């Protein structure tokens, strides 16, 4: 009765490259709409998209880009991002996703660490002047989207048949990295094509679906769970805006009659919080995906009830596993879809192990979640030691997440190993406390961290975002709300009211940064000050 599960499936894995899969879809659904860039007012059928992909592929070849060369894409969500993704795949170049939020020193690191051959970049986005930063680091082989040089990349003529294998590296994605520089997770055609395909299968995508993608394309959530799930099923990709905008997202759902909507929890919270939320026609929605960070139960219930997303799925994974490892199914009960991250994906294995011994733990006991199968990355780009630390000799990817698995294979994420708070010898999983605090009528969002304490080693601190027009919230009021409902050592000692949390561009909360800030506040001010901040 150990915590292990394998994903059975009647459907085989796809043994083909991304380019070959796109060609099959174009042959079946050439006249159907494939891509809509709402902000730019542009549309492509599958035949038109494939034609532009081929033109860009020919241009890259003419510029000297060869199989295995690294081609960077540094831009917000736009049609050019999608076209570049498939063009590089067709010629066997390795697409390097550059985080739109990067600054100069981060850009330089990625360019040098990946050995970038060419960069396709936006000129600017929000407060970032990409052209100035590229100039500052002295990188010269760059083409800017929206210029004549980019337009000139598109060439007519046949695309030479490339000698590609589906196990070839095709994508490098740099992990967020909480300490030091990020690592480049290197993924193959086989990794990401199959992951996108099976995500789409499990939420029943067909050529009639239209997927609204406000999540960043630079991350697996956008380019794999979104783009590849769509193109492997003949569905339509809808890009509502270059960056996340809750109003633009719901407007795109309504105007484009989207059937599916993606987002991290904070995105759904922002959409539900719009003053005119009820005025948006979301009647065409049936499904979608909430992922990227733990999904609050109360938020999930509102998404199902108020956004018409009765078949919404929870996905769990990480960049290094292409990304999805476990997922809920449409026929799962609401409890399963709000209290777990589902079951193991088809053709994958999951186990929960004791972090110290590496042995699987019994059902229901917490341990580290590990994943094995087609989705596990090839490794970190040019970092064999880091790869060996993450992937063991038996090819299990160690996630660093604490989880439990029940006897039906459903997985519940209870926190990060590094986030576990040990207060006076008692283990406290912040996720459990967060889920309870979401039931407070004045709390819109909450994150719980551990902060140093002389007596107990660590104490709990809740960072809270209040609902609009909610009254001030004190630690005393929170303790009263928790009294008799949470064990005393799980009740936060400190409450810090904020407008928002430190986030990565993909919507993951940076608890490391929160702890650093909290320690600074506690070290500079009297402890009582933060309790009512």
UniProtKB/TrEMBL annotation:
InterPro entries with a match to the protein in the record: AMP-bd_C, AMP-bd_C_sf, AMP-binding_CS, AMP-dep_synth/lig_dom, ANL_N_sf
Cell membrane keyword on record: no
Gene3D superfamilies in alphabetical order: 3.30.300.30, N-terminal domain of ligase-like (3.40.50.12780)
AMP-dependent synthetase/ligase domain boundaries: 22-381
Ligase among keywords: yes
The protein's name: AMP-binding protein
Domain AMP-binding enzyme C-terminal: 432-508
The entry's keywords: Ligase
UniProt xrefs under CDD domains: FACL_like_2
Organism listed in the record: Paractinoplanes aksuensis
Record family assignment: Belongs to the ATP-dependent AMP-binding enzyme family.
SUPFAM superfamilies: Acetyl-CoA synthetase-like (SSF56801)
